[in-house]
């Protein structure tokens, strides 16, 4: 038995199909059909169906149109959290941490009190060195505490 890896399908087939499905869903199309995707990505029907089968459940939600001969098409009704993260529709921890640092810096620029402005800017500089996963955990804990969800 050979130990060679299979060809990469994520970058060449699956991700472009997922990205197009996300674009169409985000534009308000519901559901998105495999035909809608095929019209915009330039892949043949078999590649679209194979990509949607690979993405179904992990990255997309929807239904396959089955027949005795196999899958005829797909209707995509949504993206999972993982699908939204992969396409940029859901920020990852790094983006959230960067956004928080930027907000603190901007808040420091807008505050009239010089001591408050300095504290906000200093907090932003300090947070730049904190790993995003730690920052996300701390932020979530603060939100839980403030909302009484602890």
Verbal overview:
By secondary structure, the chain is an alpha+beta fold. The chain has two domains: 78 residues, Arc Repressor Mutant, subunit A, CATH 1.10.10.10; 55 residues. Helix content is 61%, strand content 13%. It has seven helices and three strands. The chain has a three-stranded antiparallel sheet. Strand 2 and strand 3 form a beta hairpin. The radius of gyration is 22 Å and the shape is elongated. It starts with 9 loop residues before the first helix and ends with a helix. The mean pLDDT is 87.
Main attributes of the structure:
Arc Repressor Mutant, subunit A, alpha+beta, 3 strands, 150 residues, 7 helices, three-stranded antiparallel sheet, single chain
Strand content: 5-15%
Annotated CATH homologous superfamily of the largest domain: Winged helix-like DNA-binding domain superfamily/Winged helix DNA-binding domain
Write down the domain tally. Answer: 2
Mean pLDDT: 87
For this structure, the CATH topology of the largest domain is: Arc Repressor Mutant, subunit A
| Uncertain parts | none
- Structural class of the secondary elements? alpha+beta
Shape: elongated
**Major β-sheet, in short?**
3 strands, antiparallel
Please summarize what this structure is.
By secondary structure, the chain is an alpha+beta fold.
Task: Please give the structural blueprint.
Blueprint: H1 10-26, E1 32-33, H2 34-41, H3 45-55, E2 60-67, E3 70-79, H4 81-87, H5 93-110, H6 114-127, H7 132-147
Antiparallel strand pairs: 1-3, 2-3
